[in-house]
Amino acid sequence: MPINIALLLASTSAAFTQPTAQAVQPPTSTECRNLTPPTSINPKEYRRALTAADLVSLRDIGPANNELPEHSLFAISPDGRAVALQLRQAIPETNSYCLGMFVVPLRPGAIPQPVDLGGDLIRATLDGFGKSGMPSGIPLPITPQWSNDGKSILFLKRENGPTQIWLARTDGSDSHAITRTDIDIEAFRLLPNGKTLIYSTRPALARTREQINIEGRTGYHYDDRYSPVASNRPIAKDGLPSAFTALDLSSGTERPASDAERAVLETPAPRSPRGDENALMSANPPDAWLSTMGSTALIPVTRPTVRSRDGTATHCPAESCANAIGPIWKTAHKNSVRFLRREGWANSLTGIYEWNLVNNRVRRLYQTQDYLVDCQPLGDDLLCAREQSLVPRHLARIDLKRSQVELLFDPNPEFANLTLGKTERINSLNDLGLQSFEDLVYPVGYQPGRAYPTIVVQYISRGFLRGGTGDEFPIQLYSNAGYAVLSVQRPRPVGLDGSAKDQDEANAKNLVGFADRRSTLSSIEVALNELVRRGIVDRKSIGITGLSDGSSTVQFAALHSDLFAAGAVSACCWDPIQDIVFGPATTAMLHRIGWPKLIDDNPDFWSQVSLARNPRKVRFPLLFSSSDDELLSALQSYTALRQARMPVDMFVFPDEYHIKWQPSHRLAVYERSLDWFNFWLKHELPEEGRRQAEARNWEVLRDGHEKLREDQLSAMTATSNGKGG
Questions:
Q1: Where in the sequence numbering do the catalytic residues fall?
Q2: Which of 559, 534, 563, 560 is nearest to 681 (CA)?
Q3: Which of 112, 123, 193, 607 is at 20 to 30 A from 707, Cα to Cα?
Q4: For residue range 249-267, what is the model confidence (pLDDT) as tens digits?
Q5: pTM across the whole model
């Protein structure tokens, strides 16, 4: 389903851990021997070309794209000397994951201590579009909590059954479940007394699903609960309440949580206005927070705010306080507040600021192009999960007095020894005057003066350049194969210009004349044309990729751009059939913002976007890598393209969702997309095996399309000669 993830997550929330089909097998201890990072690296051993498996098998802290930013990715110990976190490593050979909870001392070169190993991958479920508990491929961030004495951590773990709360000793001596619920525990919090734990479950969701099972005996009623593209049965409606339980850790007794205890767990962490940062409060009740003021409903202007002794709120007046993001915290001496904000060209930079509460002055302490994924105060410093263009996620301490950064924990020390293409940040201004930025990744072994085949990867380009949004298009694998890669940060949506009163109005503005799609495509073309002018990009050999919003841009480019010679997408497409496959509730929303109804034939509208309505106008070959969950939305375009003898191929991945989660699938998508572009842009075939057989099929598609064009040209020539005679 080619939807904008940012807008989707703005209207949905993570509901955590409902069980879904488990297609992977638990790994063996031998397979997981590499989960603990090595303490020393022999550069000669690892200095080699990067492979697809290197990217798939990275040790991850949290979801690769930080899809659930409201969750912290680590927890600092009470004494501030260590952190607890989960490491996750995919094993594509067995289609499995290695999972472990680690305690990492906060000093350079410290050895991480595994305190719990094993368990099943917990994937987040989403609430939104009027539905509850929709499965996803996004790994749930596991946020541990420390005991007050710092000798234990508590965390969520699933092992052959519902998700439970586990307790592990930080010396690694013991780890065990402390709950035995019949359904998944979704969230928990240890109260300040260190003796009582509050956790939540959703028995109402379990009961609703059982009622749906019973309903099936007499036939499901087709109504707003349906989304055929996601399920062939009704989906539980949203708004189902959670149940809250208090657990006494000393006695093991449980009781219903009080309203005050429930509020501790139920109150969500405030979200930042950008939708991709964490806005954390400093205490409960807070003495520093972000206030929304002087804003529209969709683009809040946030400012740091403090509570004075008499309870009144004071807002930071300086212009540099506008559009602050989390975290926000008071310094140890309590007379200053620190916060983060996005700034610079297209908000490509992050600044850390200090607001002096005595003299009301605001000064910037630090500015960076790095992606600060999750930050927490550590004394007078800031501890962050940080990413850089060529460096996967790691823990770093930012010394705000000296504006210096110290690497504390790198879960992938081997990665720096692989061959990587160097990067260059590019700032662009599109035809609408909107700012965007891109990261050019040079081919490994780049030679100045030579123009290279190029692949565009969309649509977020912050932090580690891995595989684009959804992590399906392996940037450094392309670079190692001799491609220049343009990683694109799309411009802000046209509808978010400050005038829209709600999400529907913003989406409607995006759709008028396909303004937002034209804006995004313009940003990409402006950057590419500049690189062609600089002699880096071969204009005749450019590929484009995309998932979600990126897939929509590829679809639009296929009908409107002459720059591209091949494309690859995940889910697809916008077509008249979408009224059927999306279901009544989503379809009603689409109609509100301007999409035509199925019964209203609107050729002018569909001529601008639908591949199914315009298969012979598609300008480049397309590869679809669809999840089975979203297959229906691709079938109309795929079928039309095949019937029109256009070069299109599709592979369908079982038990997958909008974001794919299975390691073997990710490896296959990585490798196949490289083969696809090698075939169309470099006229190369894989050397052997399954991958060569697939490419031989592409030869058939290519030859059939060329034969069609020859026949059409001959027919046109004959017609012209006949008229001339």
A1: 548, 630, 658
A2: 563
A3: 607
A4: 999 999 999 999 999 887 6
A5: 0.92
